[in-house]
């Protein structure tokens, strides 16, 4: 049985602490590093996605543990019309600050309709996955989350462990490339609307952050650590989108708002739909570059997809330039960053299917 807690209580640090004190278990709040079985028992069994359920796909709630002992919860999608032969499989995650009930689940279900097993998972500290404190991101741990998903897929009888790929969306596109480089079990990787989260945190958008701005940001986060350590409440959060666009004319914020804060993509467990991240999470990204070894994905193939109108397009172009062959950069004419989250008439699923069918053979 899943304990039902109002979403506002989960987003409010004071309410989370009160609920714990009142006897609501840490597992129900997702506040602890549970065992995989315990995390699975706490996960909702209801269909609570931002997209319709397919009648051509079998859906299972699953859980597995990463190398740091954090239990991750995922949704495993399998084609109903399948033979006895083991299936090729995909690990899917993203966007950064989203949960598996949003874009990752949509991708996973669509790829299952096309003959793949696919697991969409919540990364550590997010959604139904374990880890405390909540709403933390890490370039190392989140890269490991993708590798843990490959661990899980390779242990399933219905899956051919020699035919596993990855799909990463937005910030988890960078994580997927970062994971595929050292994890030689991954036979192919595709990313859409990719962000390099280390780069954007360390240098700002378009690498425009000055040394003085960087030092100021790091000083503020350093001091915030003392505030968080001294507090009896959960660490300070920031970065959630505004509830209203009144007085805001930034087109990127408006684009994200149209997905995360409306019926199109809102989810009560999504950080971007609600209160945002632990504000000190950026420190590790600013100190630890991703994609240093992107060339080591080769000789396995990488497909990098971006919208022509996306503010994030340059991340994809630069990742493509740094990667070694075989590689492909696909620019979707007229598409913005969030179009590749959920617009099924824009996301090139035919291309993704052909790419993975060709390289997971």
UniProtKB/TrEMBL annotation:
Residues covered by the Xaa-Pro dipeptidyl-peptidase-like domain: 69-199
Superkingdom of source = Bacteria
Please give the InterPro entries that the UniProt record associates with this protein.
AB_hydrolase_fold, Polyketide_trans_af380, TAT_signal, Xaa-Pro-like_dom
Q: What is one Pfam family matched by this protein?
A: Peptidase_S15
**What GO molecular-function term can you cite, just one?**
hydrolase activity
Keyword field contains Nucleotidyltransferase: no
Sorted alphabetically, the keyword list is: Signal
Q: Which residues cross the membrane?
A: none
Where is the secretion signal located? 1-38
Q: What's the name of the protein?
A: Membrane protein
Originating organism: Seohaeicola zhoushanensis
């Amino acid at each position: 049985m899943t304990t039902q807690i109002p979403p506002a209580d989960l987003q409010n640090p004071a309410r989370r602490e009160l609920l714990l004190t009142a006897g609501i278990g840490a597992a129900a709040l997702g506040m602890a590093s549970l065992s995989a079985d315990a995390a699975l028992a706490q996960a909702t069994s209801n269909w609570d996605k931002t997209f319709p359920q397919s009648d051509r796909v079998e859906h299972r709630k699953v859980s597995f543990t990463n190398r740091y002992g954090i239990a991750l919860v995922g949704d495993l999608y399998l084609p109903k019309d399948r033979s006895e032969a083991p299936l090729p499989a995909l690990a899917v995650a993203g966007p950064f600050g989203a949960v598996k009930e949003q874009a990752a689940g949509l991708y996973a279900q669509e790829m299952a309709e096309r003959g793949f097993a696919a697991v969409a998972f919540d990364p550590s500290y997010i959604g139904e996955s374990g880890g405390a404190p909540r709403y933390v991101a890490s370039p190392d741990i989140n890269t490991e989350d993708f590798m843990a998903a490959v661990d899980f897929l390779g242990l399933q009888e219905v899956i051919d462990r020699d035919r596993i790929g990855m799909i990463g969306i937005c910030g988890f596109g960078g994580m997927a490339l970062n994971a595929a480089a050292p994890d030689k079990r991954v036979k192919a990787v595709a990313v859409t609307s990719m962000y390099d989260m280390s780069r954007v945190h360390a240098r700002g958008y378009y690498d425009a952050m000055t040394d003085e701005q960087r030092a100021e940001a790091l000083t503020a986060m350093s001091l915030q650590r003392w505030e968080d350590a001294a507090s009896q409440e959960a660490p300070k959060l920031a970065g959630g989108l505004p509830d209203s666009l009144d007085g805001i004319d930034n087109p990127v914020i408006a684009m994200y708002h149209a997905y995360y804060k409306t019926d199109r993509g809102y989810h009560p467990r999504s950080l971007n739909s609600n209160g945002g991240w632990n504000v000190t999470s950026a420190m590790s990204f600013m100190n630890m570059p991703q994609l240093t070894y992107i060339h080591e994905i080769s000789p396995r193939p990488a497909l990098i997809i971006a919208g022509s109108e996306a503010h994030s397009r340059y991340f994809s172009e630069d990742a493509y330039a740094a990667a070694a062959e075989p590689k492909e950069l696909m620019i979707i004419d007229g598409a913005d960053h969030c179009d590749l989250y959920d617009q099924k008439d824009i996301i090139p699923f035919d291309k993704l299917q052909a790419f993975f069918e060709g390289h997971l053979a």
